[in-house]
Every structure is written in structure tokens, then in C-alpha cells.
Amino acid sequence: MKIARGNYNVALAGRIAMSVMLVFTAMAHFKFTQGMTMMLPEFIPHREIIVWLTGVIEIAAAVGLLIPSLRFVTAWLLIVFFTLILPANVYASFHNVNYQEATFTGNGVNYLWFRIPLQILFILWVYFSSIKFG
């Protein structure tokens, strides 16, 4: 930011970084659809469509964070989204889902020691870069 704009803008840098992360995670929804479908309980209908839809939501959120008029509402919706997807990660952990391989050879419950703090970090990241200081 210092080189491009002549000053430090931590909030903008945070939004750009979150947008890049969201685009990469969205791509995983399309590349690893079968494995990500396994992260949802079988009783949920249209699981594949849900995986694709959440990928599209992540791309839309990546764009929305960078548009000043959409940033605030996008940030709050993204915080809700991050909260709502956590149960899928918990379910996948308890069922040892390896979404990249589409097998049940994942890290199991130990993964949650990483994933839950990461999810909290993402929520705080969006809040501070897009709502509080955005």
C-alpha cells in the first residue's frame, strides 16, 4: 500500500488479502466439489449445488469487500457466512473427511484445533478491516 498509494492503509490491505483468500477458497469449491459435498450430512438435499453456491458466494463476497458502497453489508453477511459454515467443518472433522481426496482419511477432530481459531480470525479480520476501520 505504501508503494502504490504513498501511505499505509491497513484496512484496505486487509480487505484485499481477504478477497484474494476468498477467491482461492472459492476455486476449491469447484475443483474439490465431490469431497466438499462429503462435508455435509447426507440428509441435506442438493449438497453439490450448495457447494457450488457457497463458492459463488465467496467470489461475490471477495468483490463486495472491494466496492465501498457494498463493503459494510458484505462484511456483515460474510461474518454470518463464516459462522454458518463452521458446522460443516465440525461435521467433516468428526467424519474424517479429506475433501481434496474425497475420502474419509482426513485429520479428524484434531483439525478443529486449527479450524475453529482460524474461523474466529477470519471473522475478526473482516470485522476490523471492513466494519470497524473500513
What's this, in brief?
This protein has 134 residues and is an all-alpha fold. The chain has helices at residues 2-5, 10-31, 33-37, 47-64, 68-94, 112-132.
Walk me through what this model shows.
With 134 residues, the chain is mainly α. Helix content is 72%, strand content 0%. The chain is built from six helices and no strands. α2 (10-31) packs across α6. The two termini are 15 Å apart. The mean pLDDT is 95.
What layout of secondary structure does this protein have?
Blueprint: H1 2-5, H2 10-31, H3 33-37, H4 47-64, H5 68-94, H6 112-132
Helix pairs in contact: 2-4, 2-6, 5-6
Average pLDDT number: 95
Coarse morphology: elongated
Number of strands: 0
Helix content: over 70%
Helix/strand/pairing category: mainly alpha
- Straight-line distance between termini: 15 Å
List keywords for this structure.
134 residues, mainly alpha, 72% helix, 0% strand, elongated
